[in-house]
Amino acid sequence: MNTQIVSRLLLLLSNFTIFACAQLVWKEASFQKDISPSQDGTSAVMSQIFYEEKDSWNPMEGTTQKRKYRTLLEIWQGQTKKKVWTVASWVLGEQIYYLPRQRRIVALKGMDDQYGTNKRLLVQWDEEGKEITPSYSDSDRIFLDFSPSDRFLALVTGKSDPSGSVSEVQIEVFENEKMVSSQKISDWLGSPLFALRWIGNKLYVREGSIVWEWENQGNFAKSQKFPSCFSPGSEFGKKTYPSAKITENGWEPGKKVSTVPKMAKKPEEMEDCF
Q1: For a pLDDT cut of 70, what percent of the chain falls above it?
Q2: In 3-state terms, what secondary structure has residue 235?
Q3: Per the omega criterion (within 30 degrees of 0), is the bond before 232 cis?
Q4: Which one of 87, 170, 212, 268 has the lowest number of neighbouring Cβ atoms within 10 Å?
Q5: How far apart are CA 37 and CA 194, in angstroms?
Q6: What H or E segment, with its residue span, contains residue 36?
């Protein structure tokens, strides 16, 4: 093999090595910015998750490795950005609730560096971005929703394991951070078969073909009449304003979906809707 060919092969190998090493270096990345409007659509919290990523040595993983999640939160009142701060973890956009009457933001943030797992912590901030320590249960907080009056908070709690399974699932209802009722359910899966829905101060909990109801500090009971669809779950957030969008100069709430559901009396009449 002549010297010229060897030189070219060495150059190609060198370039490939440099490219491969570059792909294995941690780089900054982010998800698309998200928005969660308040109940009346005049205020909102924008959120954007940032992280570091690199290609894996193992091509069979089919995705990049990610670490060091953090979330940028912005309070918007009308078209005015009022406050910006950063949270040292991932915060799910669909689980951010801005409560202007209480002058606070409530959300679920990750407890580990694995995005989207059920290891979540309920957190609160005032409108200056200062964290308020809530006094809730020690279980993983998996899902939350507020009553339209923002008087009551429904929390789905449980014990999650590394595989993503959840045990000891319970619905807990709070008023002013004091638990007023609870109900154990069999599971909580990311599907329409397990869902919450508030209508006024009445809470409906779908557990497969069973629906539980709770109202005004009473006990849970099996419901004989219930919403045919469990989305949106309340009158807050991005599911209530699905057409909300971020614009060049701020944001637009879009049209609020109807929060008055069609009611059903039989499980087969329920729709599998998100």
Answers
A1: 88
A2: coil
A3: yes
A4: 268
A5: 24
A6: strand 34-37
Q: What pTM does this model have?
A: 0.85
What would the two tokens of residue 101 be?
A: 């009457």
Phi, psi of 50 (to 5 degrees): -115, 155
Tokens describing residue 40 = 């009346």
Across 229-244, average pLDDT: 90
Inter-residue contact 230 to 273 (CB < 8 Å): yes
Hey, what are 66's tokens?
Answer: 């990610």
- 169: which 2 tokens? 């699932």
Question: For residues 109 and 103, is the Cβ–Cβ distance under 8 A?
Answer: no
Cα-Cα-Cα-Cα dihedral sign, residues 61, 64, 65, 66: negative
106's enclosing H/E stretch is strand 104-110
For tokens 């409906």, the residue is: 204
Half-sphere CA count of 109, side-chain side, radius 13 A: 19
Give the Cβ contact number of residue 78 at 10 Å.
11
| Half-sphere exposure of residue 165: CA atoms within 13 angstroms, side-chain side | 4
How far apart (Å, rounded) are the C-alpha atoms in residues 84 and 103?
15
- Residues 204, 34, 240, 84, CA torsion sign: positive
The rounded distance, in Å, linking the Cα atoms of 57 and 20 is: 10
Alpha helices in the chain (DSSP H): 3-23
**Residues whose CB is less than 8 angstroms from the CB of residue 117 and which lie 6 or more positions away in sequence, other chains included:** 110, 160, 164
Contacts of 120 (CB under 8 A, 6+ apart): 92, 95, 108, 109, 110, 111, 140, 141, 142
pLDDT of residue 2: 60
User: What is the pLDDT, as a whole number, of residue 6?
Assistant: 47
